[in-house]
TrEMBL record:
<feature type="binding site">
    <location>
        <position position="7"/>
    </location>
    <ligand>
        <name>Mg(2+)</name>
    </ligand>
</feature>
<dbReference type="GO" id="GO:0006083">
    <property type="term" value="P:acetate metabolic process"/>
</dbReference>
<dbReference type="GO" id="GO:0005524">
    <property type="term" value="F:ATP binding"/>
</dbReference>
<dbReference type="InterPro" id="IPR000890">
    <property type="entry name" value="Aliphatic_acid_kin_short-chain"/>
</dbReference>
<feature type="binding site">
    <location>
        <position position="385"/>
    </location>
    <ligand>
        <name>Mg(2+)</name>
    </ligand>
</feature>
<dbReference type="InterPro" id="IPR043129">
    <property type="entry name" value="ATPase_NBD"/>
</dbReference>
<comment type="function">
    <text>Catalyzes the formation of acetyl phosphate from acetate and ATP. Can also catalyze the reverse reaction.</text>
</comment>
<protein>
    <recommendedName>
        <fullName>Acetate kinase</fullName>
        <ecNumber>2.7.2.1</ecNumber>
    </recommendedName>
</protein>
<keyword id="KW-0479">Metal-binding</keyword>
<dbReference type="InterPro" id="IPR004372">
    <property type="entry name" value="Ac/propionate_kinase"/>
</dbReference>
<dbReference type="Pfam" id="PF00871">
    <property type="entry name" value="Acetate_kinase"/>
</dbReference>
<dbReference type="InterPro" id="IPR023865">
    <property type="entry name" value="Aliphatic_acid_kinase_CS"/>
</dbReference>
<keyword id="KW-0808">Transferase</keyword>
<comment type="similarity">
    <text>Belongs to the acetokinase family.</text>
</comment>
<keyword id="KW-0547">Nucleotide-binding</keyword>
<dbReference type="GO" id="GO:0000287">
    <property type="term" value="F:magnesium ion binding"/>
</dbReference>
<keyword id="KW-0963">Cytoplasm</keyword>
Length: 398
């Protein structure tokens, strides 16, 4: 079965085409600047030259049509006809309390995704655009939605409820949902396979550290807590997001600086984190480069970032009553040996000991970076959310 995986944003669309029986990626690519006459489409087919083109792509329906054209193109395609695509899987950020697992798309599912727009106003509308665009171009092809929040629906009430009036939960569903669930789920399974131990017997702290970042406490394969909350703003310090702060800062700052709700939201989501403290960049690679050049603000931003991550790891070790393995994934987690070292060197009380050679730059792929004497395994597991979406789609459609 060939499964097309779609990750739609408000003005972008990423895709991967899988040949499921072999787990192969036949093609992948993305469309950027949807809605403009200078939209950029990049296409990377297996065994053929990459394609990059600029053209007018004004909506997601047109973007999907262009992707399908390239997938069957005589020189750049990997299929004879679009009919060879037997199912389409979509990433949807927010499933609320309605979805504890991936589901096939029908009118009820689409209606519920629309109802959840308020909880993910930047993401869920884009996902629905992608679903509708596939329906317009591929009528009758089954579609599946995979939710970032679903993996965390196993959290107990003590973890997902906030200590605010319960009427806010009953009326407006104010609670912790968590995100990056597809990634946390994937690396948990891969960690168990790497360690050759049953997932049901493991206590894991998984760290998805990229421009957006979150930790999860995973007990026996089930998420029991996670750092992102009702929105992806809570938790760790991130590239441009503040993470945890005193909630009184919001009204105080609004009063002092005469900010609107929209302006303070923009400040916390787009102008905080590494970007704000360093005054330089939200990109950890640039932060580390500036540190090497003696930039004290970059050094402070890095120290704050590592310190807050270390605190969450310690908290989740407590929530799990112990930790068998600590897992790093995503862009920064997979590639910054300096961050991993800074975090782990202060976790010796938990029994964490890092092998600095294995933690070095020359190693890639799934790997153990803890010393032989470490009581806690420390792993780097590259994430693969697209494969999880393809796998769930295949299972539900087959």
């Amino acid at each position: 079965m060939n499964v097309l995986v779609i990750n739609a944003g408000s003005s972008s669309l990423k895709y991967q085409l899988y040949f499921m029986s072999e787990g192969r990626v036949l093609a992948k690519g993305k469309v950027e600047r949807i809605g403009m006459d200078t939209a950029l489409l990049t296409h990377e087919p297996e065994g053929k030259p990459d394609v990059s083109e600029v053209s007018e792509i004004l909506d997601h329906t047109t973007a999907i049509r262009r992707v399908l054209d390239l997938l069957v193109h005589p020189q750049h395609g990997v299929l004879k006809t679009a009919a060879e695509i037997e199912a389409v899987g979509h990433r949807v950020v927010h499933g609320g309390e309605s979805f504890r697992a991936s589901v096939r798309v029908d009118e009820d599912v689409k209606r519920e995704i629309r109802r959840l727009f308020d909880l993910a106003p930047l993401h869920n509308p884009a996902a629905l655009l992608g679903i509708n665009a596939v329906e317009a171009n591929m009528p009758g092809v089954p579609q599946v939605v995979v939710f970032d929040t679903a993996f965390h629906q196993t959290m107990p009430p003590a973890a997902y409820l906030y200590p605010v009036p319960m009427a806010l939960y009953r009326k407006h569903k104010v609670r912790r949902y968590g995100f990056h669930g597809t990634s946390h789920h994937y690396v948990s399974e891969r960690a168990a396979a790497f360690l050759e131990r049953p997932l049901a017997a493991l206590k894991l702290v998984t760290c998805h550290i990229g421009n957006g970042a979150s930790c999860a406490a995973v007990l026996g394969g089930r998420s029991i807590d996670t750092s992102m909350g009702m929105t992806p703003l809570e938790g760790l310090m991130m590239g441009t997001r503040s993470g945890d702060l005193d909630p009184a800062i919001v009204p105080y700052t609004m009063g002092k600086e005469e900010l609107t709700l929209s302006e303070v939201s923009s400040m916390l989501n787009k102008h905080s984190g590494l970007q704000a403290v360093s005054g330089l960049s939200s990109d950890m690679r640039e932060i580390e480069g500036a540190m090497d050049a003696g930039d004290s603000n970059a050094a402070l931003a890095f120290e704050m970032y590592a310190y807050r991550l270390r605190k969450y790891i310690g908290a989740y070790a407590a929530a799990l009553n112990g930790m068998d393995a600590l897992v790093f994934t995503a862009g920064v987690g997979e590639n910054s040996e300096r961050l991993r070292s800074a975090v782990c060197r202060e976790l010796t009380f938990l029994g964490v000991e890092l092998d600095e050679v294995k933690n070095g730059r020359g190693y890639k792929g799934e790997r153990r970076i803890s010393a032989a004497s470490s009581r806690v395994e420390v792993l780097v597991i590259p994430t693969n959310e697209e494969w999880m979406i393809a796998r769930d789609t295949y299972a539900l459609v087959r």
